[in-house]
Amino acid sequence: MPFDAGVVAEVQAKSDLLAYVSQYVTLKRQGREYVGLCPFHSEKTPSFYLNAEKQVWHCHGCNAGGDLIKFVERYENVDFPTALRMLATRAGIILEESPGAQRRRSEREAVYEANAVAQAFFADHLRRDKKALDYVHRRGVVDETAALFGIGYAPDGWEGLAKALERSGVDLALAERAGLVRQKTGHYDFFRNRLMLPIYNLTGEVMAFGGRALGDETPKYLNTPNTVAYTKGAHVYALNLARKAAAADDTLIVVEGYLDAIALHQAGFKNAVASLGTSFTPEQARELRRVANKLYLCFDGDAAGQAATARSIDMLVDEGLAVSIVALPAGTDPDEFIMDNGRDAFAALINRAQRWVDFKIELACRRISSTFSSKSDIAREAMTVIAQVRDPIERDQYIKAMARRLDVSEAALRQTRVLPFNRQTARPADAPAIRRAPATAQPVSAERDALQLVLARPELLAEALATILPDDFEDVELRGVFERLREHARDLERGVNPLTVFADDPLVAELTRMALASPPLPLEDDERRLALIAQRFERRRDERRLSSIDEEINRLINSDRSVPQTLRDEYNALAASLRGPAGEHNRKEG
After folding, report:
1. Domain boundary assignment for the chain
2. Which helix (H) or strand (E) holds 154?
3. Using one digit for the tens of pLDDT, what is the confidence trace for 213-270?
4. E-strand spans in 190-299?
5. Global confidence as pTM
6. Which residues contact 75 (CB under 8 A, 6 or more apart)?
7. Which of its termini does the chain have fewer beta carbons within 10 Å around, N or C?
8. Distance CA 262, CA 6 (A)
């Protein structure tokens, strides 16, 4: 962990999971747990469970789970250090970071400061450069909107920004790592003669810039490379401004370009954001999902925009978002449409938006006229789309409509066998999960029981470590969990939640389920339970040793060699312990 375990434990001790989650999720008590609608995926039946005693949560619908820090990570879309820092601030605790984490945070904050200097420099030059300001006005952007979005202009020179950064005390080596300058014989400006569009994080710091050419220069957009403060494909433009408006009706309008989003905001569509690219990544889909459940996808009306829309739909639907498609006239983009037709015309397009299923089926049906596709190909593709519709009644209606559209019998269409593909698991969605087949039920049961108990009762870890060994675990994955708990035994002794150790591990959801499944017993009963589990492991060790000795004795006998008495005695002692006197007698005669 990047922070001292004692501080992490103090933050967790002073932060209540139930109180925090209740700010965002309506929870109802159900026995010893609380239940509500999951904030991480769309659902109508509650599948989000929280146990206040164990300070853990889990969603049976999307298989997410963990401790309070993990909830903050998911809900706020931040990393572990940031989530912990947010909770520490809330609890009035000063964090002591490890030197490495402190350096990374310090550099990220220094990049924010350098970007702030650069943004002020660009904004000042926009006000003073007639050519750039004329371009902004020609694009329909008024001065107030330009100021709201922090728009600026990078002058057509080589050292203007570099010198401004130096005057402000920014180290140019850091500015280079921030993507603001480059170095050859000396440092020179990375962005030159471009309209500068800052990209903000949710708390208002400038993470990066997009630089748009004012003419036909290439590339059309020049963007900040990956830095400690910014990762391409992980952020959404203007979400810092749109999130408040989106909360009002749980809806976002998603466009492709910076200026498209700006034009929509200026026209009164305050819930508009831009994808910063032509297709979505899972990280962007999750960021959108945190803010709203319903999306209006409005990419350009050309072939590339249609293709981008089709690519994006699957990613967004997989994340549980309700997606509708806004159809623009061919060859136009939202920015141009708003300028030419006004706000009301765009609002009418929103009102006529097409559900994502209809859009994809429409694309499939267009291929019927193609000589390269048969009607059966179209039916198969359409059924693949329809299979993604979760509501069975709605799915049935689409099948009926599709049968009429293709002029085939409904029965024939239903017989079109297509396995829907689940991108998150990389296997057919209705195919059974592949699981390891253990040799016997007992080893897996003993191993899972031991981990379940320790995860729910971390105060018993020391006793478990004294009686159970990592080699006792036959399941490699579970052995790794036990070894990780052993490595962090000191942290857990200081009060750190065991699930915090696995905060960034894909197993955290499964481990959360195990912790929640542990029966709520008194400490004395759990101590007896651990003793019984330890006895099962001891018996398994003895059985393995007995089997090994048996093989060794048989090998010696088959090679006409004498069996050492110590080996016979050990075998007989183990046999008597495991099998009783009969086992001992049989080996003696052997």
Report:
1. 5-91, 99-223, 239-352, 361-428, 441-577
2. strand 152-154
3. 998 888 999 999 999 899 888 899 999 899 888 877 889 999 989 999 999 999 999 9
4. 194-200, 206-213, 221-223, 251-255, 272-274, 294-297
5. 0.60
6. 24, 39, 40, 290
7. C
8. 46
